[in-house]
Structure formats: structure tokens, C-alpha cells
Amino acid sequence: PSMAQEATPVLLVVLARLVSSTWHEGSGYYAAESHTNEVYVEEAPPEPALDYRRVPQWCATLNIHRGEATCYSPRGGSYRSSLGTRCELSCTRGYRLGGAQGVHAVQCLPSRRWSGMAYCRQIRCHVLPAVLRGSYVCSAGVQMDSRCDYTCLPGYQLEGDRSRVCMEDGRWSGSEPICVDLEPPKIRCPDSRERIAEPGKLTATVYWDPPRVKDSADGVIKRVMLRGPEPGSEFPEGEHVIRYTAHDQAYNRASCKFTVRVQVRRCPVLKPPQNGYLSCTSDGNNYGATCEYLCEGGYERQGTSLRVCQSTQQWTGSQPLCARKRWGAGEDLPAAMPGRMEGQFLHLTRSHFNAVLLDKAGTDRERYISPVSPDELFVFIDTYLLSEREAARRAQSGDPCE
Fold this sequence. Notes:
By secondary structure, the protein is mainly beta. It is 5% helix and 33% strand. It has helices at residues 374-382, 388-397, and strands at residues 10-13, 19-23, 30-34, 40-43, 67-72, 86-91, 95-99, 105-107, 118-122, 134-138, 147-152, 157-159, 163-165, 178-180, 186-188, 193-196, 203-206, 212-214, 221-227, 233-236, 238-248, 253-263, 276-280, 290-295, 299-302, 306-308, 321-324. It has a four-stranded mixed sheet, with no helix packed on it. A three-stranded antiparallel sheet has the order 5-6-8, with no helix packed on it. It has two helices and 27 strands. A hairpin with a 6-residue loop joins β2 and β3. The chain folds into five domains: 52-122, Ribbon (Complement Module, domain 1); 134-180, Complement Module, domain 1 (Ribbon), CATH 2.10.70; 186-262, Immunoglobulin-like (Sandwich); 276-324, Complement Module, domain 1, CATH 2.10.70.10; 331-402, no CATH class. It is found in: Cell surface; Cytoplasm; Secreted; Synapse. One of its GO terms (molecular function) is signaling receptor binding.
């Protein structure tokens, strides 16, 4: 009623065909009526008795899942959906507003609708890519605050961030790590070995199996290098280091080594007998060496002629003696002349030779000759060959006779 007493505005309408509107109270709209072409003045109908701004609930109540609305109403905070109410929207942690054109606030319109639509959607990061030769485990999938921890396969090491977290902006922290092969291969050499030199030699032939090699990453070994003699080689006396080096596909390397020791078993060094000398093979006193005892002229050996160095590092037999020869003829008599040489004309050259004493049988037990003619005797005396050691010894002593 008070509203009806207020001054009403006057409308001037000029139409080709006059169309006026009649207010139907309570209907919310005007009905149109046709009139003839004329200019007229009409009083506007009174406003409706209902004030939309004062209706407590004009728009639907806002209900945002995982969010909240902070509203400001013209009639005060208790009116959250009256006409003209403005609501600012927000989401709980882990969610963000979604909707057309990034709506962050809505207003209650006369149409009894809110000016926009919005909703809270969960913040999610993209799915992390797979890691070559590795994997990751996430605490909450791709949701915000989810933490993903990376690990690598055995034999590989992680380079980069070990963990990544899904952040509030929908991106992962850090950067994608990689798994690299930094671990060297595993190599095991054969055990060190010791060998005894072969009989009569100063070396030993040594064999061994190749090293055992394994790559802890992909199991692929690129190459294995040997530093030293090959298996089956002859090794001299002493200690020798054999080294192997293995390389994997990532050029990591590992080495191992072992030793080959060759021992030459030796017997005590023999001493030559008095008035005699030794003639030995190999190195003289190594395992398998033989030594022959020889006596100087006018002396004869009594005892073992050959001795052998055994693996027990002991010589066979015992040391002989070189004793002065005992002649069958009396010392005051000349040696007997063999019948075959008696009455023959002998001519000796001025070449060096050894005087040979013959016993009754006409023989020297060490140097037996049976010349049948003067020429044969000449050749024998003139070209009699001494052993190399005896010739060297006599040449050094300077006592050859002419």
C-alpha cells in the first residue's frame, strides 16, 4: 500500500501501431493490447508488492563439494542466497576451481540463477614416464602431495632426483632421473699356483682356466684383456704376475691378478774330486741334472761315475775318488810294449799330445787304442781329442807337452 502511494512515472509512447502492456498482478509479466495509431500518455502501473531483494532465499543454496562459498548479501550475512548476493568460491587443499572462464565468484540474479557455474576438481599431476632400467613407487598416485621414490635395477645407479612430489600447481618437483651403469663388472682370477721345474730343465709349463667374469648390470662383457704370458707357456724360475682386465658395455672395468711361481729344485753343489773334475748337464745341480766324475791323467776313478739330482734334492750315489793308477810293471822298469807295436818305426809330430802309459796288456783303461800300423798310431797320437773341459783346463794351465 505504501508502495502504491509513491509518484508514478509517465511514459510517452509513439508507435506505428500502439501496443500497451497491462500488468497482471502476481503473474510477473505484462499482457499486450492493440490500439489504433495514436500518441498517448499512460501512467505506469504500480510496482509489485514483493521486493526481490528482501526475499531470504531467491537463488538456490550454494553447495560446493570439496570447497566453500564466502557470501556477501545486501541484507547481511544471514542471507546467503537473496537477490544480489555475491559469493566468492574457494576449494579445500588438493583441489582447485574449475568451470567456464575461470569463475571465482558468482552473484544471485533476478532470474533466480547464479551468474556462473564452478566446481572443485582434484589437483592431479601427469603420469610419470617409465624409467629405463629402473622403477618408481608413489605414495598417492598422481594426486597433490604424492611422493614418488625412484630405484634402479641391480648394477645401475641413480643419477638425479631420488624423489619427486606432485605440487599444488599440478607439476612434479625436480626432474626425471636416469639409471646409469656405474658399477664395474665382477672378475675373479684363478688361484695363484706354484710349479716345479721339469726334470733337467729350468722352466715349467703352466696351465690355468680363464677368469670368471660377470657384469652385474646387463650381464654383457665387452672384452677381457690378458697382461702376461698365455696359459700353457713355459715360465722360467721365479715369480710371475698374471693380470686380467674386463670391460663392460658402459666402459667400466675391473681387474684381478694372480701369480705363477716356478721353483727349481736344486741339490747341493758337487765338488770335483781331488785330481779330477766334473762334467754336468743342465744347470749343474738342478732336479734331473747328471754329473759325471772324470780323473786327470795318471789317476783312475774309484766309485760312482754318474750322479743324478733327484726331486728330493739329494744326489744319487756317493762321491768317487781319483786315485793314482797302479801299474802292473815295476816302477823301475819301462812299461811293456804291446807285441803289435814292437819293432815298428814310430814318428811323432810336434803337435800337442798326451803321453799314454800302457799296462802289461798294452792298454790304458781309460783310453784304449789298438794301432795296427805306424800310420794309425801317428793319427791316434796326433789327433787325440780331449774333452772340451779337459782341453780348456790344460790350455789354461799351460803344461802340454810337445
